[in-house]
Amino acid sequence: MKTKDKILETALELFNTSNTQAATTNHIAAAMGISPGNLHYHYKNREEIIFSLYERMFDELFPDTSYIPQTLQELNEQHKKFALISWKYRFFYRELLFLLSRDERLKERFKTDNLAYKKRIEIMLLDFHNKGWMHLPLDNMILHLSDTILMFLQFWHPFLESIGEEMNEYNIQGGLRRIEGTLRSFLSPEGLRLLAKIES
Questions:
Q1: What superfamily would CATH give domain 50-197?
Q2: pLDDT value at residue 72
Q3: Which of 51, 63, 74, 137 makes an SS bond possible with 69, Cβ 3.0 to 4.6 Å?
């Protein structure tokens, strides 16, 4: 593994087990057994490391940014993938607002990516409605539902901490279970039939 990649792997482990403020570039270098100067040759500061980890996470989540689930099965698979990756990079969602406040470049990139993803969710919901799988008769229902999905995806981690729940893989997946429960309430009889086949 290249030094640059190993820095990211080490930083990810330290960020996940403690937090981004406790894990300085000196701590990351020490954990790797390299000098701080060697680390700074690849990344000028901690913000660059965090930005690179975000880019890597985004690429793992969305290898094709034009992809929109076409079926409930594909949506189910996307949710499973999101659960795995959000656990792998849990520090980012746990500290989301703080990280965005510290780095304007990250904030702008995240906002751009977020708005694009929100649009894809809206397109997917409209498609499911048109196929007769969901019942969303009012225009603002798609908007409100896409907002709800995004809030669960991005702010479930700090919500868990705010109520004293353990930050483990099962509890983090709870956000996705809430999304699935919310979507289920809008499914048509045909949509429920298709979902039952997926879950069987």
A1: Tetracycline Repressor, domain 2 (1.10.357.10)
A2: 92
A3: 74
